[in-house]
Write the structure tokens for this entry.
Amino acid sequence: MRLRSRAILVVGILLAGVVSAWHLGLDSSSIWPTAERWTVLGRFLSAAFMPTLTSQSDLAINIVPRTLQAMWTTVIFAVAAMSLSLVGGIALGVLASERWWSLFPVPRAVRPVLYGSVRTLIAFMRSIHEILWAIGLLAAFGLTTVAAVIAIAIPYAGTLAKVFSEMLDEAPEDAAEALRMAGAGSLQIFVFGLIPRAIPDMGAYAFYRFECALRSAAILGFFGFETLGKYIHQSCGELYFREAWTYLYALVLLIVIVEWWSGAVRRKLTVA
Amino acid sequence: MNPAARFVLEDATVSFGQTRAVDEVSLRVGAGELVGIVGPSGAGKTTLLRLLIGAVRPQSGRVSVDGSALAELSPQQLRALRAQIGFVHQDHRLVPTQRVVTNVLSGRLGRWSFLRALREVYWPRRKDVEDVHRILTRVGIPEKLFERVDSLSGGQMQRTAIARALYQEPEAILADEPVSSVDPTRARDTVALLARIAREEGITLCVSLHNLELAREYFPRLIGMRHGRIVFDAPTTDLLPQHFESLYELSEQQMLQDA
Amino acid sequence: MKSVEQLYRERPVNRFGRVSTLLMLGLVAFAWTSGVFDFGALFTERAQGNFTRFLTELRPYPLQGNAWDWGVAGEWLDEQLSGKVGAAILATLAFSIAAIVLAALMGLAISLFASRNLSSPEPFLPRPRAPTPTLRRCWDAVVWLSRGWLIFARAIPEYVWAFVLLIVLGPSAWPGVLALALHNAGILGRLFAEVTENSDPRTSRALRALGASRFQIATTAIWPQSMNRFLLFFFYRWETCVREATVLGLLGFAGLGYYILEAKAALYWDRIALWTLIGSLLIVAGDLLSAWARRLVR
């Protein structure tokens, strides 16, 4: 992008930010806490340095077991959701890639319909937030853990599908071409020539999505499921900030571990 | 002697936009012949080879392999034909994240159904792995059997690509600059190897090369190309230095153009 | 010459990859067999009943139980949306834009401290006197703290940030904007820092030789060079901000989510579906806009 247009863009962005802030009524007075607010804020911030290991509602209860349990449940929810979404994501991702349809030509009239409907389906799946999916699915099926996991799996499958389809369309075609010249059939070309070229990136992205799934699983706790969100919700609601920080730190710990793992996987996948 | 014609081009022309990569070229290659194709870059050598395997379609003219016109073949027939022809690409075109053995095993995909292929390539039998090992020994990299392709040097990758083509047990091999990324001594060994294998097994061989010396030494027939046209097509022994000079000299026009 | 067996035994094996894969597969197996998830629960009579009832409740209220009528549907649509939809969309967009801009500014600021090439005792050029170990450790601490802060900010999901900040800061638009901004600052800050660390050091070195401060080097050498990538990240995160901004309303903030919250309180599923759909369209539009902007920048 040319320098001048870029400068204009940046200025435009800053302007948009200011206008938006004004529209929302963001001003220094509303962020500056009132006297009582200061105490709450102060307690909140100082509690960050004093996370507690006993429940603030009843000092006799040790919250470590429930924290660990909640961490584990968060992981399980995320793992379950990812396993479902990977299946859907790969299937839809393949069907949403242009290269798939060029290898498996369908009658001219049918192809845009198929391709278009898959892409629309994916856009629809992706554009509804997992919380909204949860609201709907939990109402439709009752407060079951399966419904909660499906609520995460659907938008995630959509996102995976979109990204996977792009990766498949942008992966180098060299090996695929070579296999075609060796007499391989269409499905063979796709599976033996194209997918291996795209898999390192697909794998790395899927792992990143797993990290996001942990966050989503934590949020589902707000609906009452036994993940970290439930306890964050509870303790904050009662202004038990020290306890809340324990749960927050637990979540951060989970994310840090998975982020590290994800980074290591990515490094190993992309280097010999 | 009139050896049965393996590859026949009749007035084939391939244009990419304004330029004619291959310009009304006719040629016949008989079974078991060893043909070297030489010429400067951009002469059309790659396109010529790609014509022979149907990777590119001529705008006019005809390509026939083993008596059948490529344009008239069904996709299955084309597939079966290609399974008989090993193509070695200039940029090897391997899967870098897979091991050498997997890449070489993929050479026979043309023979197998999809499900069978999954088994053969990803859970190969011991005998097949040993076959691959044998071929790798022939091309000089036996110890690389289980190495990842991206840990190999350019020359080793090229030889893996050749191994993949050989694993097809083809009746013909088309090689597009198979030694361009290889250092001179290895290049000579590789070309010698290709020529020897072709002769021993009666494989029809067409190789495009930069290196005139190698071409003259190992190929009894040479085709010279320039600007998409065939400048000469004769037994090597009949060729004179003038032939080669005419191939590479820059015409005054060209020098002005390039400047 | 080595036999095939030997070569097989000596073959390079990605230990880490294997362990990771096994661990993942183990987790998956455990998750599905642990009894936490019971697919059967979806197929009980009660669940099926719930589901069919839910589907009927998705239809606009006046049409439930009756045949579909475009006229009635249109009236209902008009009634639901008039006076509300414009403001809701604007509010949602405003949240997303204010938040992402704030996030970018915060991210830029922190990336200065989180980039090892800038945040060091000897940025780009060695000093005449080697820095003491203590000084080095101080600078390392700066990098660590800023990176740690970035990790913390992005580890907490936006929705949780919003919930917590709402309690702590009280009702206003700020908790919503800050929640999105902080989380995204964590992401953008890290991305910006990576780009800064990978930037071409030559100009920076030259400026340093002329005595420029770290800040000056960043703003005049590194940022212009990396601005394109910054912008790409910016638009990419803005898409997500739009998505998150739509659900902020569930906590009470202005925007599309607010009407969903209202409808949810009364269990008006038809309205929930409607507002969700509108949110969906907005997000798709945002995605397209972001994709277009990113193409422009490239």
Remarks:
- Strands of chain B lie at 5-16, 19-30, 34-38, 60-65, 68-69, 85-88, 172-176, 204-209, 221-226, 229-235.
- The first strand of chain B starts at residue 5 and ends at 16.
- Chain B has two domains: 1-84+172-194+204-259, 91-169.
